[in-house]
Amino acid sequence: MTTPAVDADSQLLIHRCVDCRRWIHPETERCPECAGELKAEPVSGDATVFTFTVNHHAFHPAVPVPYVIAIVELAEQPDLRLVSNIVGCAPEEVTIGMPVRVLMEQRGDTLVPVFARA
Ligand SMILES: [Zn+2]
């Protein structure tokens, strides 16, 4: 899955259909429901952990192991899910259904949206 965009205020941006108002992630060319145009809009950043795994293998020097790779479901829409990391707590404290909130983590030159316990 693609990493969602972040705007100048470090808000998480997700694509949304301008016609039926459905949120779409990962981004597609057109709305899969009504073929409407998509436009990035900020979301609340509130989410819950849908599922997760603890990773012990280092992929990026800026990210120490172990860390949690999670699929989080955004509060805006029941099937609006994205892959991210859960930060700020021990991996064994993460549970499915845990409420989380987005925060932006600097990794090299890019701000990456990650989630911490709400
Ligand atoms: Zn649509």
From TrEMBL:
Report any Pfam family annotated for this entry.
OB_ChsH2_C
Where in the numbering of this chain does the ChsH2 C-terminal OB-fold domain appear? 41-102
Q: Name one GO molecular function term.
A: DNA binding
Entry keyword DNA-binding: yes
Segments forming domain ChsH2 rubredoxin-like zinc ribbon: 11-36
InterPro entries, alphabetized: ChsH2_C (IPR002878), ChsH2_Znr (IPR022002), NA-bd_OB-fold (IPR012340), Thioester_dehydratase-like (IPR052513)
What is the top-level taxon of the source organism?
Bacteria
Alphabetically ordered keywords of this record: DNA-binding
Its name, as the record gives it, is DNA-binding protein
